[in-house]
Amino acid sequence: MYLEDPGEAVACLAGLVAPGGLLSILAKNRRAVGVREALAGDSETACRLIVSGADRSVGNLGRETRGDDPDALDRLAAEHGLSPQPWQGVRIFHDHFDDTWAPDPAAYAAALELEWAASSQSPYRDLGHLVHTLARRPGRSRS
């Protein structure tokens, strides 16, 4: 999210993946740009980002960051000889709670179960603040 273009980084990382190994990428989700702002009540900013199809927004650190589309990350991995695996949305619902949310263990377990259940199913995964893509290098592992 801090690089202007992920292509060179994905190429470099893909070259390091051993036969049978996995490339794991966790990135800001371009499909969800504007969701955080909307759920925080900043309707004006959310609308501007969504209507414009923005691929970047200002994050919690006050820095503008770029989002990646999981399908584009999968294409980049495939271009470098890797086989994309199913991707997941990360931090779908609870990412938007404020810092005062302090659940008891049962509520935390329920929140975790909800996030896990939604992480691999559209349309929920498409709303995750982050996207987690995996791609495997064909061949046998060295183990």
What is the element layout, followed by pairings?
Elements: H1 7-14, E1 22-28, H2 35-39, H3 43-52, E2 56-58, E3 64-66, H4 70-79, E4 83-84, E5 88-90, H5 105-118, E6 130-136
Antiparallel strand pairs: 1-6, 2-3, 4-6, 5-6
Q: How would you describe what is shown here?
A:
It is built from five helices and six strands, in the order αβααββαββαβ. It has 143 residues and is α+β, with helices and mostly antiparallel strands. It has one domain: Rossmann fold (3-Layer(aba) Sandwich). Strands 1, 4, 5 and 6 form a four-stranded antiparallel sheet that branches. A two-stranded antiparallel ribbon has the order 2-3. Strand 2 and strand 3 form a beta hairpin. The protein starts with 6 loop residues before the first helix and ends in a 7-residue tail after the last strand. 26% of the residues are buried.
CATH class: Alpha Beta
In CATH, the topology is named: Rossmann fold
Give the full name of the CATH homologous superfamily: Vaccinia Virus protein VP39
| End-to-end gap | 33 Å
Total domains: 1
Overall average pLDDT = 93
Tally of separate helices? 5
Task: State the major sheet.
Answer: 4 strands, antiparallel
Shape: globular
| β-strand number | 6
Order of helices and strands: HEHHEEHEEHE
Calculate Rg over CA atoms.
17 Å
Helix content: 25-40%
Would you identify the CATH architecture?
3-Layer(aba) Sandwich
> How much of the residues is beta strand, in percent?
15-25%
> What structural class do you assign from the helix and strand content?
alpha+beta
